[in-house]
Specification:
The structure holds two protein chains of two kinds.
Chain A: E1 45-52, E2 62-67, E3 92-96, E4 102-107, E5 114-121, E6 128-133, H1 140-144, H2 147-150, E7 156-158, E8 161-163, E9 166-167, E10 177-178
Parallel strand pairs in A: 1-8, 1-9
Antiparallel strand pairs in A: 1-4, 2-3, 2-5, 5-6, 7-8
Chain B: E1 9-12, E2 15-18, H1 20-25, H2 33-44, E3 74-75, E4 112-120, E5 131-136, E6 161-165, E7 171-177, E8 182-184, E9 190-192, E10 195-200, E11 209-214, H3 225-228, H4 233-237, E12 242-243, E13 254-257, E14 260-261
Parallel strand pairs in B: 4-13, 4-14
Antiparallel strand pairs in B: 1-2, 4-7, 5-6, 5-10, 8-9, 10-11, 12-13
Classes of the chains: A mainly beta, B mainly beta.
Family (chain A): Belongs to the intradiol ring-cleavage dioxygenase family.
Domain Intradiol ring-cleavage dioxygenases (chain A): 38-112
Pfam family, one (chain A): Dioxygenase_C
């Protein structure tokens, strides 16, 4: 419980988050945002799914971001996510849901157990964090979850790659994650 | 504001009861500002200590009713990618994107402002060379978005989208137009206080945040369920910029300062609030 900067440093209180609202659509999504690698890349997989609300209805105004290791498990430290050059793997992408709540990323299978994901939506007061575990992956965090909750974090293998649905509320609610230091 | 209907809420000690009818229908059309105000007050009365983030379950913002998790989150120790943030560089952001008043041939209508501040973590360490994105309504309160059908004019010289990278000391700086308040359909005669949306990255993935910056003294603060979803007044005050005459540019723009403190970095484990 010792702050990195020592005992006398005044710790600043965090700035609260707010909902992304309904009007981010002309600001945050961008050309190439969902394509961490080009669709024709030999190692390309599709990570896709649907975002659902507590009534099981699709959420057409959600925004998802993913952040992941490359195929060898290294964490990318390269810029260029906003203007992709078609060669550099930056490890980060952003996708909106469409009018039936579906999202789709084109990426590579990470050399790591999971892909980190952030969820934003109109009506969601603050961002949510979660993890998209690869089929068959296991780590202490995943194994610590009750089995019925655990499966909400594990992607399903399908023809084009991975399917992962995000359920914001209800019986099939996705496990959302907080990290140490989160207020 | 004269209406006294309180049918949707009842207060017991530390418990807010929002009727199933409200939850099920989320029928905003019939709800009055007075009813929303009563719900806001009832929830505010449940606060027992410091809160630093909005309530996820906040029925006065009707769209949240079916979109908030009802199960507790699990705490995970950040691992691998979570200990790093995506990197953005000069190839991602043109310096001109920080000036929202020069994106078209003509000058946008409205009050030109400079908004600047620093992005730091909870220990005051600057978040350097990191992406800041903003979006906002124009001076008439209209977004350049097809879903915004508010009958206020679009400004052909204003898009309302900006980006910049923070400097070595975490400083960001935008030149823009002061946005107007705008109506929305959460309830009858609902208006949002003027605000600028901010999207922020930290030096770690766990610090990712989207929020809204407000302007000092807005008369709509008390009426707005999105602002009031941050139940602790000290916390929501931190979303309000300060007028700063040292930022004001003579004969060009008035100046606002707004500093941003990110939460969740592993360097800030001392923060347990």
């Amino acid at each position: 419980m010792i702050g990195a900067s020592g005992t006398n440093h005044p710790v600043s209180r965090p700035t609260p988050g707010q909902t992304i609202g309904p009007f981010y659509g002309y600001a945050l999504p961008y050309e190439g945002g969902p394509d961490l690698v080009p669709k024709g890349h030999p190692d390309a997989i599709r990570l896709h799914g649907v975002v659902l609300d507590g009534a099981g209805a699709p959420v057409p105004d959600a925004l998802l971001e993913i952040w992941q290791a490359d195929r060898t498990g290294d964490v990318p430290r390269k810029a260029g996510s906003l203007h992709r050059d078609g060669h550099t793997f930056t490890g980060w992408g952003r996708a909106s849901t469409n009018n039936v709540g579906e999202y789709s990323f084109t990426t590579v299978m990470p050399g790591a157990p999971f892909i980190a994901m952030t969820v934003f939506a109109r009506g969601l007061m603050n961002r949510l964090f979660t993890r998209v575990y690869l089929p068959g992956a296991a780590d202490p965090f995943l194994l610590s979850l009750p089995p019925d909750r655990r499966e909400t974090l594990v992607a399903e293998k399908d023809a084009g790659g991975l399917r992962f649905d995000v359920t914001l509320q209800g019986d099939r609610e996705t496990v959302f994650i907080t990290y140490p230091g989160h207020s | 504001m004269e209406q006294k209907s309180r049918t949707h809420t009842a207060v017991r000690p530390n418990v807010v009861v929002v009727t199933e009818a409200v939850r099920a229908s989320s029928d905003a059309a019939a709800t009055t500002q007075a009813e929303i105000g009563a719900e806001i007050a009832a929830i505010a009365a449940t606060r027992t200590g410091e809160e630093t983030q909005p309530r996820l379950d906040y029925a006065p913002y009707r769209s949240s009713i079916l979109r908030h998790p009802t199960k507790s989150p699990y705490q995970a120790d950040p691992e691998a990618v979570e200990l790093f943030a995506p990197v953005f560089g000069p190839q991602d952001v043109d310096p001109l994107e920080a000036d929202l008043t020069i994106q078209h041939l003509g000058e946008p209508i409205g009050e030109r402002i400079v908004v600047t501040g620093r992005v730091t973590d909870g220990d005051g360490k600057p978040v350097a060379n990191q992406l800041v994105e903003i979006w906002q309504a124009n001076s008439a309160g209209r977004y350049l978005h097809q879903r915004d059908q508010h009958p206020a004019p679009l400004d052909p010289n204003f898009t309302g989208v900006g980006r910049c990278l923070t400097g070595p000391d975490g400083t960001y700086r935008f030149t823009t137009i002061k946005p107007g308040p705008y109506p929305w359909r959460n309830h009858v005669n609902a208006w949002r206080p003027a605000h600028i949306h901010f999207s922020l990255f930290g030096s770690e993935f766990t610090q990712r945040m989207v929020t809204q910056m407000y302007f000092p003294g807005d008369p709509l603060f008390g009426l707005d369920p999105i602002y009031q979803s941050i139940v602790d007044p000290a916390a929501r005050d931190r979303l309000v910029a300060t007028y700063d005459h040292d930022v004001t540019l003579p004969e060009v723009a008035t100046g606002y300062r707004w500093d941003i403190v990110l939460t969740g970095g592993h360097r800030t484990w001392s923060e347990s609030a």
